[in-house]
Model the fold of this input.
Amino acid sequence: MMNNKLQLFNVFFLIVATIVATKLILKTLLIKSSKRLPPVVKGRIPLIGGVARFVANPVEMLKEEYESLGSVFTINAVYKNITFLLEPDVSAYFFKAGESELSQKEVYGFTVPIFGPGIVYDAEYSVRKEQFHFFEESFRIDKLRGFVDYMSQEVQICFSKWGDSGEVDLKQEMENLIILIASRCFLGREVRENLSEDVTALINEINVAMGPLTTMFPHLPIPPHRRRDKARKRLDDIFSKVILSRRSSPKSEDDMLQSLVNSKYKDGRATTVTEVTGMLITALYGGQRSSSTTATWVGANLFYHKKFWLHAMEEQIRLMKKYGDAITYDALSEMHVLYRCIKEALRLHPPIPMLLRQSHKDFTVTIRKGDKYDIPKGHIIAVSPILSNRVPHIYKNPDSHDPERFCPGREEDKLAGPFSFISFGGGKHSCLGESFAFLELKTIWSYLIRNFELELISSFPETKCDDIIHSPKGKVMIRYKRRKLVIE
Ligand code: HEM
Done:
């Protein structure tokens, strides 16, 4: 009797278990089929095919896939799926999402050995927000006005070293100049006057160590990383001394260092020496290569498209009549032609090729034609200025150099909303140094246009894509001849 009952129970259990399992399988299949996943990039090598093509030539690969798959697609990397959102309709999610939906910490972890522990991407989000607010404070408009004098002085010192005529590598010149400007505006008088050579070499050492391998394995014990860590330690020593002497000085300076030293968290805690050091290195690192690269592209484009060089020159003559020789904040604010030339260089040659986030929730995007895609949590989400800045239904002849596309009446960058021009990112994490960058780029190029005849003697540069910052490949040789613009 007991045995019969047990057998009956077993049969009953088996039936229930089968029903539950079938239901679960059906449910999973149903969910799978109802998910509208983005199309997947195919590659010649299984598993890493798409990634290999992306690393070899990201511009070409993104262009090809955008044309065949549309504005949303996924690359299956070995252990991660990377989903690209390439038009403003879909990238809006990327730029507007909160930290609990899309976060930066996981994808920008490679910056931690450079910026330091507890700084920016290594800090809790609430702390990071406050640290970014400290940067914002040091770029307030009254501070920016003051920076223009320093920028102008550095530009004059730099170009006074050129002879009456000669040939130089524009890329090298811009790298040196941008670091001197940043040293003066961010690190202050003490560092600029006494230690600039040292700091320049150390920052370069950190830059050299940043290749694609570093983004995946930032702590790999390889010689460039060891040199990076040594340079970082030396910067720590230099900056700590300056910070401590600032703290004990009754005098207040008007540079970023002073703003950071004076900053306080919401709970009243003052910034520590380690934090100020880390934030200064963040500012130097964040702004230096992107700005020097852009300064070089601006020149290459102006020399190559002479018409715009002439327009920029006419504008300088107008402004010199109004403001005299001095390059002031007010004069810079009226350099609209030059502004558009810089913006066009940034549109065609964005220094930061990809912005990344880690997704923590499933989400759905709707493409321009109305179709929807469901993107599962766990994907890395990417937007790419190299492609988004050239979307053909937004930009007329997107591959051609035409600064006038930003003129009043055309303003192509505004036609499809705020995320059509994304060289400075956008939304929640847009670049905090954008105004500073435009001021320094305008100061450099207005000075060069006013004081030199210039021509490109090497061919128009190709883009060096195998780096975290896309820059002109090889030297960018120019010929210069000193002259003064004549104002009638
Ligand atoms: C032409 C020059 C520059 C370019 C093209 C550029 C580009 C960018 C881009 C694309 C982002 C967004 C990153 C993302 O969303 O993941 C960004 C963020 C940032 N940039 Fe710049 N940048 C430039 C100059 C500077 C300068 C001079 C500074 C000075 C400190 C700076 C500081 C920052 C900071 C602090 C952020 C992080 C903002 C946040 O996550 O909330 N940038 N920049």
